[in-house]
Recover the amino acids of this structure.
């Protein structure tokens, strides 16, 4: 299986994409707080919200279930993407969950691969390849719904997946209808050279960690350069996978500096839903009323593009 060739152009002059990262460990206060985080950043024009699982050794809610919970916000236009490690869920189960979730969010969801470090060589790559094959096992117009003729789907547009590799053995096609956006969004966190190669071949977004000065701008700039070069080697356009920097600060000057210094396509601001209520409120206000307002005035952020599936909206030119 090889990554499909696309025709998206480079993103050098376009405005930034932005979003938030939030988490909600088990045992946290009222889970409706997660709805408030999504609602507020969505109202401020965010493109997506990533739902982070709890750290190793800490009980946390299943992020796909939490993402389904947030779909009750019927007015939300931001994408909501649950996260997890490669070994958390086998590819077939994950593909089915996320395809169903994409229907709940009307074509605005996906999966965030939060870590590949420490895995056997090739496991994450194979996981992503199988996930993509399953997502794409139904062509977008495969369902015909011909009641009179007794045909639910055009069998020529439903493709078998019979994968047998060193880490997974998976049969398909997926036993659910295709995602509204063709396939859900695939996000990968940068945790080393292999994760960047994985993102270049398969992903739509690479998340860079800009929360600590320990990871300098030169390192992040090198990562972005390796991503762009890897996209070309994979037969993809240099703008077919966005680099978004995850930041802890809501200071507009600091965010602008970190995005510019590494040549990223935008940023993701941390808004931990499990923090104390007054801290969540302060963080939301600082992000949505201050940071976004200033960066919009400086021309870095534009109104959210016309309503499309999340992947198309993130990657299209503006």
């Amino acid at each position: 299986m090889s990554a499909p060739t696309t025709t998206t152009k480079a993103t050098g002059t376009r405005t930034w994409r932005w979003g938030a990262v939030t988490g909600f460990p088990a045992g946290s206060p009222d889970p409706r707080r997660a709805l408030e985080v999504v609602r507020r950043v969505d109202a401020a024009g965010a493109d997506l919200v990533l739902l982070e699982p709890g750290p190793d050794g800490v009980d946390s809610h299943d992020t796909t279930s939490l993402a389904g919970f947030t779909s009750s916000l019927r007015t939300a236009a931001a994408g909501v993407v649950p996260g997890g490690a490669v070994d958390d869920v086998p590819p077939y189960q994950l593909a089915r969950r996320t395809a169903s979730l994409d229907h709940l969010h009307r074509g605005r969801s996906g999966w965030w691969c939060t870590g590949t470090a420490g895995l056997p060589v090739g496991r994450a790559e194979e996981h992503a390849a199988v996930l993509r094959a399953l997502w794409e096992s139904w062509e977008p117009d495969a369902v015909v719904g011909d009641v009179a003729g007794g045909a639910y789907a055009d069998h020529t547009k439903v493709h078998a997946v019979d994968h047998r590799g060193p880490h997974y053995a998976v049969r398909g096609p997926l036993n659910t209808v295709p995602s509204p956006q063709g396939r859900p969004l695939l996000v990968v966190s940068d945790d080393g050279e292999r994760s960047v190669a994985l993102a270049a071949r398969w992903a739509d977004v690479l998340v860079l960690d800009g929360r600590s000065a320990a990871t300098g701008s030169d390192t992040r700039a090198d990562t972005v350069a390796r991503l762009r070069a890897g996209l070309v080697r994979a037969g993809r356009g240099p703008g077919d996978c966005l680099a978004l920097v995850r930041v802890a600060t809501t200071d507009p000057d600091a965010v602008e500096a970190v995005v510019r210094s590494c040549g990223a396509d935008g940023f993701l601001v941390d808004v931990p839903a499990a923090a104390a209520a007054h801290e969540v409120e302060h963080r939301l206000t600082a992000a949505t009323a201050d940071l976004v307002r200033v960066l919009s005035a400086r021309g870095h952020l534009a109104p959210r593009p016309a309503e499309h599936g999340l992947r198309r909206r993130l990657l299209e030119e503006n």
